[in-house]
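Task 17 of the worksheet. Students: predict the tertiary structure of the chain below and write it out as structure tokens. Keep your answer in the requested format; marks are given for formatting as well as content.
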Amino acid sequence: MRPIDKGDIPTDKGQPKAVSHYTHWRKDLVDRIGEYCCYCELKLNESLQVEHVIAQKIDDTLALDWYNLLLACGACNRKKDDNPCPPHTHYLPDVHNTYLAFELYFASNRKQNGEQAAFIKPNANLNANQAVKAKNTIQLCALDKDTTAYPTNRITDLRWRYRFQAFYSAEVWRKEWDDWGSAKANRFVPLLLSAARPTGFFSIWFRVFHDVTPIKKALVEGFPGTALNCFDADNDYNPVLRNQPNEI
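Model answer:
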């Protein structure tokens, strides 16, 4: 999950912007953090939903609050619904370095459709309390939902497919980097970024290129709204704790 920083409330003629409906923040959110689901990282070409971190049914005073709004795909938003997700029990992309909390796992030739699939699980390096928090977050948006048993014409949640496709694409680009791209980095890195941004899934690209500093830098700086304080520019853009001294 990509850690994000959408910045302070947008202004209008030098004053904090006011809106009459929370969806009116959509363009500002897209401008700040890009057309990506803040939870599953899917690139959103349509159905770009403005999502309340703290649900309106829990606290309706935050219904129009810039700091309480993110972007989500339909699958994540429907599953999250009105469920509470305070930052002491869940990892939130605008509060924590969520890149550190999760990792991928894969399944090959799943059931009826025979496709390869990728899912999210807690990072193996988390301690017991952190792992519970990560699991809560996965359950919040069903980031491990498996619909591969359904007939293809009945599947509506394909996040597992898009996640695997992004991983496969990143692996192809990694091979090209190893074969020739590293010798022509000035040309290769912008090309890779032009492929990664329309694909989405920042965390997958970053993980595949975890040991390639110029590409990590390009990803951190090229995906709009990525929280820069979650990646150490003085140490090869390696991920770091967001909430010092010891909290992800």
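Marker's comment: The chain has a mean pLDDT of 95. Residues 11 and 17 are 5 Å apart (CA to CA).
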